[in-house]
Amino acid sequence: MGTLHNVYQLKPRATYGGAFLKVKAEKADTFMHELEAYINTHFTDSWNPSNMDLQVSEDGNVLIHGMNQEDRTVDLQHPGTYVLIQSGNKHGFNSDFTACLNQFSDRFEDSLFYIVWNDDMQSFEIRDGHLQVGQFRNMKQWNYRFEEYLQEQYASDPQLLTDSFVDYLLDLKATADNMPQYDSNLDEYFDREEYEEMLEKLERYTETTKSEYAPEMIAWLKDRIANYKPVN
Known about the structure:
Elements: E1 5-11, E2 15-16, E3 18-22, H1 28-42, E4 52-57, E5 61-66, E6 69-75, E7 80-86, H2 95-104, E8 111-117, E9 120-127, E10 130-133, E11 137-138, H3 146-153, H4 158-178, H5 192-205, H6 214-226
Antiparallel strand pairs: 1-2, 1-8, 3-7, 4-7, 5-6, 8-9, 9-10, 9-11
């Protein structure tokens, strides 16, 4: 399959497995036609716009989807027009992708997301209508784990760490819920001790922070621990 690009959003909402860019309300009416015209004019074989998905939400709920992850609904709480930057794609994140974001950066509300590919990581931040692209950073010092990078760089923001971890668990639960149709089980990939470590971490995080979905995830982890069945 080759190396895939993993997308993690931190602002305005921590999202595991994709990033949502909200189009400014006053730009929404013309944005769709402008984006389509740009793709038709600038599309090349080296940039596949399938890693971007335009969604119009009337209630703030949007669909997050990508390769190697189950579809799930995310409540962004604000109706509007969103562009989903899909996670898990092999292609589509080169200079043409950056040029497209830069072209439309003044149409988007503020956002921060990261793309991790192979051993490297790069940040993309839209602030006050301007795109700022970070330098490539090697993930070796964080053991090639984005979570370790977050814990080091955002230690002063415990709410962000909580929100990011909870969204990871929501994504993991969506995967687990769909595995039986493939005659598979999450216990094939995690042992009881790993579930216990996740539970301990979440309970520690929520001692000082709040999350709407934390109680549900705590109950889900306790259930997985109680009903864990080793796979031979």
